[in-house]
Each structure stands twice: as structure tokens, then as C-alpha cells.
Design a protein that fits this description.
about 10% strand; about 50% helix; binds zinc ion; globular; four-stranded mixed sheet
């Protein structure tokens, strides 16, 4: 398995990451990468989010979800949890998740934070309706995945998202069923490149105005 090295140029501003710890619970071993991902989402600075290692998550490696009880308190009191499978299972091997290359972890967490951004823009009723749709209809599942990737790209995580996608799709040791699911439900690497291009173009246009 060829693992790409983390690319420091993706994070040129060596800002203080401590300010992104507020209201977050992060296991020490993945803390740095989680904080880098969080630093791209200043809107989530005060939002309570717990990052929780799980032994097994059905059909996925990470999963962002609202804490159900917090939905009742209204939009401002919402809290979220990102479940993280402690093991990255391949067909012939198992890797502890924290041993994945940094850029892959940042991309993956960045995608999950994109889901939380998407949730933040939904009403309580919308969240419940979405929750029901999410589990039953592939169409709404795909819509949610596209939204999460789009948030991540627009928050400057495009290069990481691309790394993560290529890592999954090019990994010959991943179960075919999983790769097919990713190809079906998620934006393709080409879609992401296209999105990054559009974002760059919009930035240039904005600078000229
Ligand atoms: Zn997702």
C-alpha cells in the first residue's frame, strides 16, 4: 500500500490551533489532524463536537451525527458526534485509523465536518425528516455526501478531499463492495478537481472586482 506523505503546503498559515479546541472532545492520538480540519471551519468554533472512537461502524469509516437529545433544545444548543472506526479494515489487513497518512485523516475529518455544516443549516424538523430520509433513501444519502464534500472544498480542504478519495478508490486491498458504494454515492475525484477549479476561478474574479 503506497501512502502519500502529508503535504505541509496545504496548510501554509501556521496558525495557533489551540483556539479550535473550544467545546470539542478529541482523542489525543488524532488531535493534531482534527484541529487542522477544524481550523478550516471557523463557523464551528463554538459548536460542541465529540470525536469518538468506535470498534465498528456499519458500512463506513466515520460518521457524523447530531446528539439526539440536543435537538430538542433548539438550534443553538445542538451538539454533534463524529464516530470514528478505530480500525481501518482492508481485505487482507487492518490498520489502526490513527496510522493513516495525515492528509487522509484531515480529508476524512474535513468531510465529516462538512456533514455538520450541512446539519447546521437544517431546522430541527428538517433534521428529523433528513434523519429518516438519510437511512432509507439512497437519493438523499447521495445528496448529503455531495453537500459534505462541497462544504469541505469550499472551506479550502479540496486537496485533502482529493487525497482521501484517491486513497480509497485506488486502494486495491479495499473490499469491492465498499469502493462501489463510494463511487456510487460520492463525488468522483474528477468532480472534486472541477469544484476546486471553479472555486479558484471565483476567487480570481473576486480579486479583480
Ligand atoms: Zn459522508
Amino acid at each position: 500500500m503506497i501512502l502519500s506523505q502529508s503535504n505541509l503546503s496545504k496548510n501554509p498559515s501556521n496558525q495557533n490551533l489551540d483556539e479550535f479546541r473550544y467545546n470539542k472532545k478529541i482523542p489525543k492520538i488524532i488531535e493534531h489532524n482534527v484541529l487542522i480540519a477544524l481550523s478550516h471551519y471557523p463557523e464551528l468554533k463554538n459548536t460542541p463536537i465529540s470525536f469518538v472512537f468506535k470498534k465498528d461502524i456499519k458500512k463506513s469509516v466515520m460518521q457524523a451525527q447530531p446528539i439526539i437529545g440536543s435537538l430538542l433544545g433548539g438550534k443553538d444548543s445542538r451538539a454533534y458526534r463524529i464516530n470514528i472506526s478505530s480500525m481501518f479494515k482492508l481485505t487482507h489487513s487492518v490498520t489502526p485509523i490513527h496510522q493513516l497518512p495525515d492528509s487522509i485523516m484531515i480529508g476524512w475529518i474535513g468531510h465529516e465536518l462538512g456533514h455538520i455544516m450541512d446539519y447546521e443549516h437544517k431546522s430541527t424538523f428538517g433534521m428529523i425528516a433528513f434523519g429518516l430520509g438519510y437511512f432509507f433513501y439512497e437519493k438523499s444519502l447521495k445528496k448529503a455526501e455531495v453537500a459534505a464534500d462541497t462544504y469541505a472544498v469550499n472551506h479550502g480542504l479540496g486537496a485533502y478531499i482529493l487525497d482521501t478519495k484517491r486513497f480509497i478508490l485506488d486502494n486495491s486491498d479495499l473490499p469491492e463492495v465498499y469502493k462501489k458504494r463510494i463511487a456510487r454515492l460520492y463525488l468522483s475525484p474528477d468532480d472534486i478537481v472541477e469544484q476546486i477549479k471553479k472555486l479558484e476561478e471565483a476567487k480570481i474574479k473576486g480579486a479583480i472586482k
